[in-house]
Each structure stands twice: as structure tokens, then as C-alpha cells.
Amino acid sequence: MTPTQDSLSVWTPRAQGLLRIIAAFLFLQHGSAKLFDFPAMGMSGAPLLSMYGIAGMLELVGGVLLLIGLFTRPVAFILSGQMAFAYFIAHAPQGFSPLLNKGELAVVYCFLFLFFAAAGAGAFSVDAARRKA
Known about the structure:
Helix 4 packs antiparallel against helix 6. By secondary structure, this protein is mainly alpha-helical. It is built from 7 helices and no strands. The mean pLDDT is 93.
């Protein structure tokens, strides 16, 4: 390994942690919009035990757990599956291309969460703090 590669590898867990935090913050907003009409107005109103309501709960609770980095691997695996399910239920019937069926974000979240399920939380996480203790 060259000195440049070695010095850059120190930043990998930090970059991974920042990616997790930002992605989780953006993702949990989908759940808060579905459940509480915040920050987007007009998205809530579905019964809590409907498919839309359960998706909102998964997005909100899973997003918060990912944000703080607690139980990252199993939560990310569940959310990856939710996003795959969302793509095939809501977007794929509208056509093959994610660009045309507006499923790009579901695909990106699916594979991003699959990455966190395999790689873990990175830095700045409760999981990392628990490992040190």
C-alpha cells in the first residue's frame, strides 16, 4: 500500500459514518411525512396498519436507528428489503426503467442499505461505541 492509500484509508470509516447519517436523515423524513405530515404536507392520512402506514413506521424508526447507528446491520437489511419491495410493488409495474417509473430513489436506498448491512455503521455510531466498551 502506498503512503497516500494508507492515509486515505483512515478516512474510510468516517466517510462511511457520514454517508449513513445523511442517508438515514433523508430516509426518515419519508416516514415522518407519511405519519405526521412533516416536513411534506398532504402525505399522511393512511391507516397506521395499512401498507403505507407500516412503510412509514419502518422508515421513521429504521431511519432513526440508522441515524444513531444502533443495530445498523439488521436494520439496514430490513430497510433494503423494504425498498426492494417498494420498487417492485409501486414502481416496476409502471415500466422497466427506474428513470421513467420514478423508482430511482428506491433502488439507490435499496443498495445503499444493503451496503450498510454488509459493511456496518462506520464511525460516529452507537454500534462502534458499544464495541469499544
